């Protein structure tokens, strides 16, 4: 593969994807750790944490093949952003709802990033990378679909717990 400006952008975007997956793992872990009254949501998030860790390894494999490393600065910035977001949500009385909405939005952000990476990988001749990103994109689409289908039930349960219990319905 030629070391063109397009190629350098592609490599930067792969590094960004690695940082994004690190951020996703942090956000998902913080949320899963706090979900007490929503076992189906906790189970699906825990499954997606495992998928996210695999996605990190897949993105790292693309970086290794390109002979580039992930950006420590981007990874650290992503983790800090995720921790701040998770910490801020801990004090919201509707943490589970806001976390679910944020998760849904973040999944679509990831889908858009992988759409871009697929096109970029193909444009610079990294067909193996394009295949990796297609595989990851499917998992992100499945998680977004699950959230879309299940957030209404989570919302109903939250509202039910808020009105009928002394329990902390926020998580």
From TrEMBL:
Protein name per its UniProtKB record: Ferritin-like domain-containing protein
Coiled coil: none
Species assigned in the record: Rahnella victoriana
Gene3D superfamilies assigned to the protein according to its UniProt record, in alphabetical order: 1.20.1260.10
Residues annotated as signal peptide: none
Domain of life, source organism: Bacteria
InterPro entries per the UniProt record, alphabetical: DUF892_YciF-like, Ferritin-like, Ferritin-like_SF
SUPFAM superfamilies: Ferritin-like (SSF47240)
Pfam families: DUF892 (PF05974)
């Amino acid at each position: 593969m030629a070391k063109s400006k397009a190629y350098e952008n592609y490599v930067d975007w792969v590094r960004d994807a690695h940082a994004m997956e690190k951020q996703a793992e942090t956000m998902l872990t913080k949320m899963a750790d706090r979900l007490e009254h929503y076992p189906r949501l906790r189970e699906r998030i825990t499954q997606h944490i495992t998928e996210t860790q695999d996605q990190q390894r897949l993105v790292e494999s693309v970086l290794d093949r390109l002979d580039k490393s992930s950006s420590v600065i981007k990874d650290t910035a992503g983790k800090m952003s995720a921790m701040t977001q998770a910490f801020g949500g801990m004090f919201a009385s509707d943490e589970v709802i806001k976390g679910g909405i944020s998760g849904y939005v973040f999944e679509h952000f990831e889908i858009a990033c992988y759409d871009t990476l697929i096109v970029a990988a193909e444009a610079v001749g990294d067909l193996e990378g394009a295949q990796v990103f297609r595989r990851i994109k499917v998992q992100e689409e499945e998680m977004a679909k699950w959230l879309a289908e299940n957030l209404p039930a989570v919302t109903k349960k939250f509202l039910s717990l808020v009105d009928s219990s002394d329990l902390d319905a926020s998580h």
